[in-house]
């Protein structure tokens, strides 16, 4: 028997179902997205960046390198304080380095050499209103036991002398300096630290949740070191330490690469060197170095080709940038933005 009312309700039910099904799918999709976001937020923020992030170009006419050189406790200390500093950055060089690598040669520092990566880090620090202090190690590399106490006392004395005791202290060390900073941070209070191209000495110190936030800046091409850094990231995270990493990847050379990164090197010589590297097989078809800049005989090839540099100090500059491009073990300023964002986010 035909029921008019029943047919009417069936039509309404069908219409309602046709509306509810897409709505139900939309709601479920939205809940899934929220779930994924929730998971992502629970993940430790261990990786701040995989690729090289180009630092913003600094107007060097507004950020001048003008250091003061002192000898404190028979140790060379070089420093510079910008107007209205907000923090203090301690810098520790690597093996065969010295504090003079971080500033250009000047009237105040006639033995300064201003290596490209080191000086770029100081320029970024000064632009961001960090007072910068660097200390030279006694020997070729840092002595973790003998010099830790010496440098701790120097920093404390210098901070008090400059009336900067109210400012937070941060530190960056590369290679041997990275080991040294990781040790020093167990003795001296830092708001945060950066350990560059080093895994640190965390197996030798007592790491608790009170250890300063630590950013590892490293080159994953060094697989042995990367493995140790990965282990330290995990163990420090378990102890409640805020940790993260930034990886510095290899760079392709181009005719302008060295001119863009080496102060005082013009584009003509940069292009000549690039052509020479291609001819000698120092770079592959994509412009990447086949080996570390310390290994390939580029200086011999340059001399044989009679490529003349305007200043012999440029040899050291070029060497550093080739090492950086190969990305196995070298100081790097490419990650300056991430590094100083890390410092600034932990100032206290």
Question: Mind explaining what this structure looks like?
Answer:
Keywords: Membrane, Transmembrane, Transmembrane helix. The chain crosses the membrane at residues 21-39. InterPro entries: AB_hydrolase_fold. The structure is a single chain. By secondary structure, the chain is an alpha/beta fold. The protein has three domains: 4-39; 68-249 and 339-345, Alpha/Beta hydrolase fold, catalytic domain (Rossmann fold, 3-Layer(aba) Sandwich), CATH 3.40.50.1820; 257-326, no CATH class. The chain is built from ten helices and nine strands. It has helices spanning 4-42, 116-127, 146-161, 176-184, 223-238, 257-261, 267-280, 298-305, 314-326, 336-345; strands at 47-49, 68-72, 75-80, 87-92, 130-135, 169-174, 192-196, 214-218, 243-247. α5 links the parallel β8 and β9. α7 (267-280) crosses α8.
Features:
3 domains; alpha/beta; globular; Rossmann fold; 9 strands; 348 residues; 10 helices; 14% strand; nine-stranded mixed β-sheet; single chain
Tell me, what is the CATH class of the largest domain?
A: Alpha Beta
Summarize the main sheet.
Answer: 9 strands, mixed
Any idea what the CATH architecture of the largest domain is?
3-Layer(aba) Sandwich
Q: Which band does the percent of strand residues land in?
A: 5-15%
CATH topology of the largest domain: Rossmann fold
Rg over CA atoms: 27 Å
* Widest beta sheet: strand line-up: 1-9-8-7-6-4-5-3-2
By CATH's scheme, which homologous superfamily of the largest domain applies? Alpha/Beta hydrolase fold, catalytic domain
Question: SSE string, helix = H, strand = E?
Answer: HEEEEHEHEHEEHEHHHHH
Oligomeric state as shown: single chain
Mean pLDDT: 88
């Amino acid at each position: 028997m035909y029921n008019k009312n029943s047919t009417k309700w069936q039509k309404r039910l069908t219409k309602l179902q046709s509306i509810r099904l897409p709505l139900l799918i939309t709601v479920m999709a939205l809940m899934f997205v929220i779930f994924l976001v929730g998971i992502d937020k629970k993940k430790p923020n261990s990786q701040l960046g995989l690729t090289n992030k180009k630092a913003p170009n600094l107007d060097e006419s507004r950020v001048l390198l003008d250091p003061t050189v002192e000898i404190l406790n028979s140790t060379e200390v070089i420093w510079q304080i910008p107007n209205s500093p907000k923090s203090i950055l301690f810098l520790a060089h690597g093996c065969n380095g010295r504090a003079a690598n971080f500033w250009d040669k000047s009237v105040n520092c006639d033995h300064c050499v201003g290596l490209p990566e080191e000086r770029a880090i100081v320029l970024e620090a000064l632009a961001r209103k960090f007072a910068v202090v660097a200390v030279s190690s006694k020997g070729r590399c840092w002595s973790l036991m003998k010099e830790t106490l010496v440098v701790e006392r120097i920093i404390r004395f210098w901070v008090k002398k400059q009336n900067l005791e109210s400012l937070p202290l941060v530190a960056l060390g590369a290679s041997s300096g990275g080991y040294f900073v990781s040790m020093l941070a167990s003795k001296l209070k830092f708001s945060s630290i950066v350990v560059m191209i080093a895994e640190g000495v965390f197996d030798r110190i007592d790491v608790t949740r009170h250890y300063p936030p630590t950013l590892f800046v490293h080159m994953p091409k060094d697989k042995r070191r990367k493995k140790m850094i990965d282990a330290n990231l995990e163990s420090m995270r378990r102890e409640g330490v805020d940790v993260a990493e930034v990886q510095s990847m290899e760079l392709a050379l181009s005719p302008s690469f060295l001119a863009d990164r080496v102060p005082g090197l013009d584009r003509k010589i940069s292009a000549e060197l690039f052509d020479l590297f291609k001819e000698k097989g120092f770079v592959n078809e994509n412009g990447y170095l086949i080996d570390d800049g310390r290994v390939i005989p580029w200086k011999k090839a340059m001399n044989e080709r009679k490529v003349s540099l305007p200043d012999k100090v440029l040899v050291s500059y070029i060497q550093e940038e080739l090492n950086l491009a190969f990305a196995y073990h070298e100081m790097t300023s490419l990650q300056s933005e991430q590094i100083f964002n890390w410092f600034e986010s932990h100032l206290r």
